[in-house]
Amino acid sequence: MPLPPLVEPVAALSDAERARTARHAALAGFGPKGQKRLRAARIGVVGAGGLGSSALLALAAAGVGTIVLIEDDTVDVSNLHRQIIHGVPDIGRSKLESATAKILAVSPETIVEPHEIRLDESNALELLRGCDIVLDGTDTMATRTAVATTTERLGIPLVWATVQEWHAQLTVFWSAPPEGVEPIVLADLYDPATVGEPPACSAVGVLGALTIQVGALMAAEAIKLVTGAGTPLLGRVVLIDGLNGRQREVEIRPARRSPDAGDAGDEAHALA
User: Fold this and answer.
1) What is the pTM of this model?
2) CB of 231 within 8 A of CB of 217?
3) Which of 19, 81, 166, 261 shows the smallest number of beta carbons within 10 Å?
4) Structural domain boundaries in the chain
Protein backbone atom coordinates (compact mmCIF):
# COMPACT_ATOMS: atom_id res chain seq x y z
CA MET A 1 0.00 0.00 0.00
CA PRO A 2 1.21 3.57 -0.64
CA LEU A 3 2.49 5.43 2.42
CA PRO A 4 2.34 9.15 3.20
CA PRO A 5 5.38 11.12 1.94
CA LEU A 6 8.22 11.47 4.42
CA VAL A 7 8.94 15.18 3.92
CA GLU A 8 7.17 18.40 3.10
CA PRO A 9 8.11 19.97 -0.25
CA VAL A 10 10.29 23.03 -0.64
CA ALA A 11 8.54 26.14 -1.93
CA ALA A 12 10.27 26.19 -5.32
CA LEU A 13 12.98 24.66 -7.47
CA SER A 14 15.64 26.55 -9.42
CA ASP A 15 15.30 26.79 -13.19
CA ALA A 16 18.25 24.40 -13.56
CA GLU A 17 16.65 21.83 -11.25
CA ARG A 18 13.33 21.99 -13.08
CA ALA A 19 15.03 21.51 -16.42
CA ARG A 20 17.18 18.62 -15.21
CA THR A 21 14.30 16.74 -13.58
CA ALA A 22 11.56 17.51 -16.10
CA ARG A 23 10.88 13.82 -16.78
CA HIS A 24 10.01 13.32 -13.11
CA ALA A 25 7.38 16.04 -13.35
CA ALA A 26 5.66 14.04 -16.08
CA LEU A 27 5.37 10.90 -13.91
CA ALA A 28 1.86 10.00 -12.76
CA GLY A 29 1.65 10.17 -8.99
CA PHE A 30 4.90 12.13 -8.74
CA GLY A 31 4.80 15.47 -10.53
CA PRO A 32 6.35 18.78 -9.49
CA LYS A 33 5.41 18.34 -5.82
CA GLY A 34 7.25 15.02 -5.67
CA GLN A 35 10.35 16.70 -7.04
CA LYS A 36 10.07 19.44 -4.43
CA ARG A 37 9.89 16.77 -1.74
CA LEU A 38 13.12 15.23 -3.04
CA ARG A 39 14.74 18.66 -2.90
CA ALA A 40 13.71 18.93 0.76
CA ALA A 41 14.91 15.43 1.69
CA ARG A 42 17.94 14.62 3.81
CA ILE A 43 19.07 11.10 2.95
CA GLY A 44 21.84 9.20 4.72
CA VAL A 45 24.00 6.79 2.71
CA VAL A 46 26.42 4.56 4.60
CA GLY A 47 29.14 3.46 2.21
CA ALA A 48 30.25 4.61 -1.25
CA GLY A 49 31.16 1.12 -2.44
CA GLY A 50 29.27 -1.29 -4.67
CA LEU A 51 25.71 -0.56 -3.55
CA GLY A 52 26.39 3.02 -2.52
CA SER A 53 27.97 3.97 -5.85
CA SER A 54 24.91 3.53 -8.06
CA ALA A 55 22.53 4.59 -5.28
CA LEU A 56 24.42 7.87 -4.80
CA LEU A 57 24.48 8.63 -8.51
CA ALA A 58 20.76 7.89 -8.80
CA LEU A 59 19.87 10.02 -5.78
CA ALA A 60 21.96 12.92 -7.05
CA ALA A 61 20.46 12.67 -10.52
CA ALA A 62 16.99 12.57 -8.94
CA GLY A 63 17.62 15.93 -7.29
CA VAL A 64 17.85 14.97 -3.61
CA GLY A 65 18.57 18.09 -1.58
CA THR A 66 20.99 16.75 1.04
CA ILE A 67 23.02 13.53 1.14
CA VAL A 68 24.73 12.60 4.39
CA LEU A 69 27.61 10.40 3.18
CA ILE A 70 29.59 8.18 5.55
CA GLU A 71 32.69 6.44 4.17
CA ASP A 72 36.25 5.89 5.42
CA ASP A 73 37.87 3.76 2.69
CA THR A 74 40.02 4.58 -0.35
CA VAL A 75 39.50 3.53 -3.96
CA ASP A 76 41.23 0.30 -5.02
CA VAL A 77 41.57 -0.97 -8.57
CA SER A 78 39.57 -4.09 -7.62
CA ASN A 79 36.59 -1.86 -6.73
CA LEU A 80 36.07 -0.47 -10.19
CA HIS A 81 34.07 -3.30 -11.78
CA ARG A 82 31.14 -2.51 -9.48
CA GLN A 83 31.77 0.83 -7.76
CA ILE A 84 30.85 3.00 -10.73
CA ILE A 85 31.00 6.33 -8.94
CA HIS A 86 34.81 5.94 -8.95
CA GLY A 87 37.19 5.69 -11.92
CA VAL A 88 40.79 4.82 -12.69
CA PRO A 89 41.99 8.38 -11.89
CA ASP A 90 40.51 7.95 -8.38
CA ILE A 91 42.62 4.91 -7.42
CA GLY A 92 44.19 5.63 -4.04
CA ARG A 93 41.86 8.59 -3.45
CA SER A 94 39.42 8.84 -0.58
CA LYS A 95 36.09 7.32 -1.65
CA LEU A 96 34.38 10.14 0.20
CA GLU A 97 36.16 12.78 -1.91
CA SER A 98 35.69 10.84 -5.15
CA ALA A 99 31.97 10.24 -4.56
CA THR A 100 31.32 13.83 -3.47
CA ALA A 101 32.92 15.18 -6.65
CA LYS A 102 30.75 12.93 -8.84
CA ILE A 103 27.56 13.82 -6.94
CA LEU A 104 28.18 17.54 -7.40
CA ALA A 105 29.01 17.04 -11.07
CA VAL A 106 25.56 15.50 -11.54
CA SER A 107 23.63 17.84 -9.23
CA PRO A 108 25.46 21.02 -8.18
CA GLU A 109 22.54 22.04 -5.92
CA THR A 110 22.80 18.89 -3.81
CA ILE A 111 24.44 19.44 -0.43
CA VAL A 112 26.82 16.64 0.55
CA GLU A 113 27.55 16.33 4.26
CA PRO A 114 30.75 14.21 4.29
CA HIS A 115 31.86 12.06 7.22
CA GLU A 116 35.19 10.31 6.67
CA ILE A 117 34.74 7.83 9.49
CA ARG A 118 33.72 4.20 9.96
CA LEU A 119 30.22 4.00 11.39
CA ASP A 120 29.90 1.82 14.48
CA GLU A 121 27.78 1.52 17.60
CA SER A 122 29.56 4.44 19.27
CA ASN A 123 28.90 7.06 16.59
CA ALA A 124 25.92 5.83 14.55
CA LEU A 125 23.31 7.84 16.43
CA GLU A 126 25.22 11.09 16.01
CA LEU A 127 25.90 10.45 12.32
CA LEU A 128 22.36 9.44 11.32
CA ARG A 129 20.30 11.74 13.51
CA GLY A 130 18.32 14.19 11.39
CA CYS A 131 18.15 11.97 8.29
CA ASP A 132 14.71 11.33 6.81
CA ILE A 133 15.79 7.92 5.54
CA VAL A 134 19.00 5.84 5.42
CA LEU A 135 20.44 3.52 2.76
CA ASP A 136 22.82 0.83 4.01
CA GLY A 137 25.57 0.13 1.50
CA THR A 138 27.94 -1.61 3.94
CA ASP A 139 29.27 -5.15 3.77
CA THR A 140 29.86 -6.38 7.33
CA MET A 141 27.23 -7.66 9.74
CA ALA A 142 28.58 -5.54 12.59
CA THR A 143 28.12 -2.31 10.64
CA ARG A 144 24.77 -3.41 9.24
CA THR A 145 23.57 -4.17 12.77
CA ALA A 146 24.73 -0.75 14.00
CA VAL A 147 22.91 0.99 11.13
CA ALA A 148 19.74 -1.07 11.64
CA THR A 149 19.70 -0.62 15.42
CA THR A 150 20.18 3.13 15.09
CA THR A 151 17.47 3.64 12.47
CA GLU A 152 15.13 1.58 14.66
CA ARG A 153 15.93 3.85 17.60
CA LEU A 154 15.39 6.97 15.49
CA GLY A 155 12.19 5.57 13.97
CA ILE A 156 13.27 6.28 10.37
CA PRO A 157 13.09 3.96 7.34
CA LEU A 158 16.11 1.90 6.34
CA VAL A 159 16.59 0.73 2.74
CA TRP A 160 18.62 -2.45 3.05
CA ALA A 161 20.22 -4.71 0.46
CA THR A 162 22.95 -7.27 0.08
CA VAL A 163 24.69 -8.75 -2.97
CA GLN A 164 26.92 -11.80 -3.01
CA GLU A 165 28.14 -13.78 -5.99
CA TRP A 166 25.11 -13.92 -8.39
CA HIS A 167 22.42 -13.26 -5.77
CA ALA A 168 20.86 -10.22 -4.11
CA GLN A 169 18.25 -9.26 -1.55
CA LEU A 170 16.45 -5.94 -1.15
CA THR A 171 13.92 -4.69 1.38
CA VAL A 172 12.83 -1.79 3.60
CA PHE A 173 12.84 -1.83 7.40
CA TRP A 174 10.92 0.70 9.51
CA SER A 175 10.36 0.49 13.26
CA ALA A 176 7.86 3.36 13.38
CA PRO A 177 5.83 3.42 10.15
CA PRO A 178 2.53 5.30 9.83
CA GLU A 179 -0.41 4.12 11.92
CA GLY A 180 -1.93 0.91 10.65
CA VAL A 181 1.31 -0.34 9.08
CA GLU A 182 3.18 -3.12 10.85
CA PRO A 183 6.79 -2.37 11.85
CA ILE A 184 9.44 -4.59 10.27
CA VAL A 185 13.08 -4.55 11.41
CA LEU A 186 16.30 -6.40 10.57
CA ALA A 187 15.75 -9.04 13.26
CA ASP A 188 12.53 -10.06 11.49
CA LEU A 189 14.63 -11.18 8.51
CA TYR A 190 17.91 -12.16 10.18
CA ASP A 191 18.91 -12.49 13.79
CA PRO A 192 22.17 -10.51 13.92
CA ALA A 193 23.29 -12.57 16.92
CA THR A 194 23.19 -15.86 15.03
CA VAL A 195 23.53 -15.13 11.30
CA GLY A 196 27.32 -14.79 11.36
CA GLU A 197 29.61 -12.86 9.01
CA PRO A 198 29.04 -13.48 5.29
CA PRO A 199 32.05 -14.35 3.12
CA ALA A 200 33.91 -11.39 1.65
CA CYS A 201 33.37 -10.74 -2.05
CA SER A 202 37.15 -11.06 -2.48
CA ALA A 203 36.73 -14.73 -1.54
CA VAL A 204 33.53 -15.70 -3.39
CA GLY A 205 33.17 -12.93 -5.99
CA VAL A 206 30.32 -10.61 -6.89
CA LEU A 207 28.68 -9.71 -10.20
CA GLY A 208 29.33 -6.01 -10.72
CA ALA A 209 26.27 -5.45 -12.91
CA LEU A 210 23.98 -6.93 -10.23
CA THR A 211 25.47 -4.65 -7.58
CA ILE A 212 24.82 -1.64 -9.82
CA GLN A 213 21.23 -2.78 -10.42
CA VAL A 214 20.46 -3.28 -6.74
CA GLY A 215 21.98 0.05 -5.73
CA ALA A 216 19.71 1.79 -8.23
CA LEU A 217 16.72 -0.12 -6.84
CA MET A 218 17.67 1.08 -3.35
CA ALA A 219 17.55 4.66 -4.61
CA ALA A 220 14.14 3.99 -6.17
CA GLU A 221 12.81 2.74 -2.81
CA ALA A 222 14.11 5.88 -1.11
CA ILE A 223 12.52 8.10 -3.75
CA LYS A 224 9.15 6.35 -3.31
CA LEU A 225 9.28 6.76 0.46
CA VAL A 226 10.26 10.43 0.30
CA THR A 227 7.55 11.33 -2.21
CA GLY A 228 4.77 8.93 -1.18
CA ALA A 229 4.63 7.45 -4.70
CA GLY A 230 3.99 3.76 -5.25
CA THR A 231 4.30 0.92 -2.75
CA PRO A 232 7.60 0.47 -0.87
CA LEU A 233 9.13 -2.91 -0.01
CA LEU A 234 8.24 -2.69 3.68
CA GLY A 235 7.21 -6.21 4.70
CA ARG A 236 8.58 -7.81 1.51
CA VAL A 237 12.08 -8.89 0.55
CA VAL A 238 12.99 -9.16 -3.13
CA LEU A 239 15.26 -12.09 -3.96
CA ILE A 240 17.22 -11.80 -7.21
CA ASP A 241 18.96 -14.72 -8.88
CA GLY A 242 21.17 -12.93 -11.39
CA LEU A 243 22.66 -16.11 -12.82
CA ASN A 244 19.32 -17.58 -13.93
CA GLY A 245 17.43 -14.32 -14.49
CA ARG A 246 14.86 -14.96 -11.76
CA GLN A 247 13.28 -12.62 -9.24
CA ARG A 248 10.71 -13.26 -6.56
CA GLU A 249 9.36 -11.83 -3.31
CA VAL A 250 9.01 -13.31 0.17
CA GLU A 251 6.80 -11.75 2.83
CA ILE A 252 8.47 -10.71 6.08
CA ARG A 253 6.44 -11.06 9.27
CA PRO A 254 7.40 -9.64 12.66
CA ALA A 255 9.49 -12.30 14.42
CA ARG A 256 8.85 -10.78 17.83
CA ARG A 257 5.11 -11.50 17.52
CA SER A 258 4.95 -14.55 15.29
CA PRO A 259 6.69 -17.90 15.96
CA ASP A 260 6.79 -18.61 12.21
CA ALA A 261 8.35 -15.29 11.19
CA GLY A 262 11.74 -16.88 10.58
CA ASP A 263 10.47 -18.48 7.36
CA ALA A 264 11.30 -15.45 5.21
CA GLY A 265 14.77 -15.15 6.67
CA ASP A 266 15.44 -18.86 6.23
CA GLU A 267 14.34 -18.81 2.58
CA ALA A 268 16.22 -15.60 1.80
CA HIS A 269 19.37 -16.98 3.39
CA ALA A 270 19.09 -20.24 1.48
CA LEU A 271 18.68 -18.46 -1.87
CA ALA A 272 21.55 -16.06 -1.22
Assistant:
1) 0.92
2) no
3) 19
4) 33-271
Strands 133-136 and 111-115: unpaired
CATH among 3.40.50.170, 3.30.70.420, 3.40.50.720, 1.10.1040.10 for 33-271: 3.40.50.720
Q: What is the pLDDT of residues 181-223, one digit of tens each?
A: 999 999 999 876 776 667 677 778 899 999 999 999 999 999 9
| Residue 13, amino acid | L
**Contact of 59 with 217, CB cutoff 8 Å:** no
